[in-house]
Design brief:
Blueprint: H1 7-10, H2 13-30, H3 35-43, H4 47-61, H5 67-72, H6 77-80, H7 88-104, H8 111-126
Length: about 130
C-alpha cells in the first residue's frame, strides 16, 4: 500500500516531514559524532536556516509541495551545494545522521528503506569531491 503513496505521504506529509527534519538537525547539533556536519552548517546560513531549507527541499523531492522550487526556481542538488565541500566522508556522515533521524521520527519499514534509497541517491548527487 505504501508503494502507491508518494514518500511525502508515506512519511506523514507535513507533520512527518517536520518530525524528520527536526530530528535530523537535533542529531547534528547534539551528537558528538556529527560535529563536523554541524560545523559545516554553522559556517553557512546557520542551522535554523538549514532546517527550513531542508524541509522545503525534501517536501518536493519526496513528492509533496514544491516549496523550494517555488522560492529558488530549481532543485538541482549539486548546484545548491556547490559552495560546500562534500566528499564521501561527509556524504556518509549525512546519511548516518539521516538514518538515525528516520528512526527518531518513527518512520518504519518498508517506508524507511524506500526513503533511505532516495536519500542515498540524493546524497551521492550532492557529492562534489572525491
Amino acid at each position: 500500500m505504501t508503494e502507491k503513496l508518494s514518500l511525502y505521504e508515506a512519511i506523514g506529509a507535513n507533520d512527518g516531514l517536520n518530525r524528520l527534519v527536526q530530528a535530523f538537525y537535533d542529531i547534528i547539533e547534539q551528537d558528538e559524532d556529527a560535529q563536523e556536519l554541524h560545523l559545516l552548517h554553522r559556517r553557512g546560513h546557520g542551522v535554523a536556516h538549514s532546517r527550513i531549507e531542508q524541509f522545503d527541499y525534501l517536501s518536493g523531492f519526496l513528492g509533496g509541495p514544491q516549496h523550494y522550487v517555488q522560492r529558488h526556481g530549481h532543485s538541482r542538488l549539486r548546484e545548491i551545494h556547490e559552495h560546500v565541500p562534500i566528499g564521501p566522508e561527509m556524504r556518509d556522515l549525512w546519511l548516518k545522521c539521516m538514518t538515525k533521524a528516520v528512526a527518531v521520527a518513527g518512520i518504519v519499514e518498508p517506508t524507511a528503506s524506500r526513503l533511505m534509497q532516495h536519500l542515498t541517491r540524493a546524497a551521492e548527487i550532492a557529492r562534489n569531491q572525491d
